[in-house]
Write a structure and sequence with these properties.
The protein is mainly beta. Helix content is 8%, strand content 62%. The two termini are 31 Å apart.
Length: 465
């Protein structure tokens, strides 16, 4: 995000300078879930089993209206490129890794581009096509093998810049205020290798990720048209703005569809005080929900991600945190509310939810210390994820909430709730050497606990006001 911030400041300053003088300038914001096209070069044996994951791009743009149908678009993007690979003990000459481990990794880069957008009116909407040219820029630490007697890898801050091009096709949906939404497909192609080190502990040929910054993704954008204010006189604009605020407030508190972006902290019900790394009372969670309000009832569903903890009381090390897995789930939540006070300033209510788990990720082999057994150095404490199927399980939530207005067109929702009935999460086999003898046990975590949640509730109808 440090690469996107200067671009955001530059674009916003440009807008502030030209917004009044140039009614042709629009500010655009983009959110792009994408799949990167990257591959592994020099795959060793056993294979790294390399696989890409879905990433996320965030962007800002300035659109200049050349005519009713042609627009010049200057864009700045912050792109992520995550992937998985399997690390094997055979890949390293000296290591404490005893079993294969599945690793989540990735890199980020920025893109700057200039494009030409052509639109075709189709009733109340418009079809658009936008080719663009620009550069991809990555900046991160990498390892160079120096030509010396020891051939020791040296860490350097590396910067790579390569040319890039993209093509985007989509639909433009205008709102009554002359703002608009963009929904489209975008293919972005990099021409040249970005910084590409992958590992430095193997003999040549060294495995590398082919990183060109190439991806295909879904564009979700929102544009602000500054002509909506210039085309009317100041007094009429103030009256219109006041009326729209009132309409948005009524829509925000009324019936209809909405979305919620929420984050929360969960206080672990089985927390144990310890100085061990990772042993904290709170674990984060997040969710994206779509809901519908009818009268005093609201019903919500979507996607949530919960971080838990798997721990053990070791005879050698005391309390030890073994894993911080994430469990993905689908929530089904019902809420009942009452409006308190005049002018829709406060809403209070009760909520109840059922969560259906999908899977649990970020489970790795962990170990602590080592001892000598039969002249062999082995881990004193080791945990191995089991083949536990964490999908299709249920847990529950009950609580109370308070909604307050936020910028007239949306609400801030504060929810206080309790999770209960959690299944076993993050189950591992624990192997410990005690007095030269191996002791085994099975440990798991839980999703129970008290939650403090903050969510931004955005009614869909207010976007069209």
């Amino acid at each position: 995000m440090d690469k996107l911030l200067p671009s955001m400041i530059l674009l916003l300053l440009t807008c502030s300078i030209h917004a009044v003088a140039q009614s042709r300038i629009n500010l655009e914001m983009y959110f792009v879930p994408q799949q990167h096209h990257q591959s592994l070069l020099n795959d060793p044996s056993p294979s790294y089993d390399f696989a890409t994951r879905t990433g996320l791009n965030l962007g800002l743009g300035l659109s200049y209206n050349i005519s009713n149908y042609w627009h010049m678009v200057l864009q700045s993007w912050h792109a992520s490129s995550p992937f998985w690979f399997t690390q094997h003990p055979e890949h390293f000459s000296s290591t404490n890794i005893l079993d294969p481990q599945r690793i989540n990794w990735g890199f980020t880069y920025s893109n700057f581009s200039l494009g030409l957008r052509r639109t075709w009116e189709m009733g109340e909407h418009a079809l658009y096509v936008q080719p663009s040219l620009g550069i991809n820029r990555s900046r991160s630490f990498g390892f160079d093998h120096q030509d010396s007697l020891v051939n020791f890898p040296i860490a350097n801050l590396m910067t790579q810049v390569v040319p890039a091009a993209s093509i985007e096709v989509g639909m433009k949906f205008s709102t009554p205020s002359n703002n608009y939404f963009l929904v489209g497909l975008r293919h972005h192609q990099g021409f040249g290798m970005l910084q590409s080190w992958f590992t430095y502990s193997m003999e040549p040929p060294v495995p590398q990720v082919q990183r060109r910054g190439t991806y295909t993704g879904l564009v979700l954008g929102y544009g602000i048209d500054f002509r909506s204010r210039k085309n009317v006189n100041r007094e009429d604009w103030r009256i219109t703005k006041k009326e729209r605020k009132a309409e948005k407030r009524v829509a925000a508190w009324g019936d209809g569809t909405y979305v919620i972006f929420g984050t929360l902290l969960r206080s672990l019900s089985d927390f144990v005080e310890s100085n061990a790394p990772g042993m904290t009372r709170f674990r984060p969670a997040s969710h994206f929900l779509v809901g519908y309000t009818s009268g005093q009832w609201s019903f919500e569903t979507g996607y949530s991600s919960w971080m838990s903890q798997t721990k053990v009381e070791s005879q050698n090390f005391g309390w030890v945190s073994l894993n911080d897995p994430r469990t993905r789930a689908i929530p089904l939540r019902a809420r009942y509310h009452l409006d308190v006070g005049p002018n829709n300033r406060l809403r209070v209510g009760l909520s109840a939810a059922t969560f259906v788990t999908l899977n649990t990720v970020r489970m790795n082999v962990t170990q602590r210390g080592a001892v000598m057994v039969n002249d062999e150095r082995v881990p004193a404490l080791r945990s191995v994820p089991t083949d536990q199927n964490s999908g299709g399980k249920l847990f529950y939530q009950a609580g109370a909430f308070v909604d307050i207005p936020f910028f007239n067109s949306s609400l801030l929702s504060f929810n206080f709730s309790q999770n209960f009935g959690s299944p076993e999460i993050g189950q591992v086999n624990v192997q410990e050497i005690v007095n030269q003898q191996q002791v085994e046990s099975v440990k798991s975590g839980t999703l129970n606990g008290f939650n403090f949640e903050v969510g931004l509730k955005l009614p869909i109808s207010t976007l069209m006001k």
